[in-house]
Design brief:
The protein has 182 residues and is mainly beta. The protein is built from 1 helix and 11 strands.
């Protein structure tokens, strides 16, 4: 079982044209789910952060730069956590973070407050394009966003030969609550 995704942490400085947002870590979470031997496995990453600039009226200058400390991951079953953190897995001793950096954010046809962030996910030694569909509701200076990213673990070199089809895809769910930066 693997996964490491995305993301949210201390990152790169981006243009300050869109509104900047500060993540409320106590109200936010990064979770994951997958299947191992046809049984659901869930978990979470406790250490993450993001630099976010988002304005629905200025998507051209909006951005998400998110990082997850993969060593903070914990699966619902301790033996799966051990496998996830092993050398064939996420290997946090060698690859301590997973990072998502958006290149574009566009409105989605799914709803009036739905968007798709497209960019690169860096996981282990792989840097591959991914999509992060998300919905965000902004009420004054508070934003609440929920997004989901599906990661095909083998594309990122996560998992040994003994893993077979276990956790072939990992769904990462991000719930972020943030306050407009002053």
């Amino acid at each position: 079982m693997k996964l490491a995704l995305f993301p949210l942490a201390l990152l790169v400085s981006a243009p300050v044209l869109a509104s900047d947002w500060e993540v409320d870590h106590d109200a936010s979470e990064v979770t994951f789910e997958t299947d191992v031997l046809d049984a659901p496995v869930t978990g979470r990453f406790s250490e993450f952060g993001a630099a976010i600039g988002f304005d629905p009226d200025d998507l051209a200058n909006s951005y998400i730069d998110a990082t997850v400390r993969v060593g903070s991951g914990e699966a619902s079953t301790p033996s799966y956590t051990d496998e996830m953190m092993s050398e064939p897995g996420l290997d946090p001793d060698t690859y301590p973070t997973a990072t998502f950096m958006s290149e574009t954010i566009e409105a989605s046809d799914e709803c009036d407050t739905c968007y798709i962030a497209r960019g690169d996910l860096i996981l282990r030694e792989a840097r591959l394009p991914v999509e992060l569909p998300f919905r965000v509701v902004i009420d004054g200076d508070r934003a609440v966003a929920d997004g989901t990213m599906v990661i095909e673990r083998e594309r990122f070199g996560v998992g040994g030969s003994s893993w077979g089809e276990a956790a072939a895809e990992v769904t990462v769910r991000v719930h972020i609550e943030a306050d407009r930066a002053e």
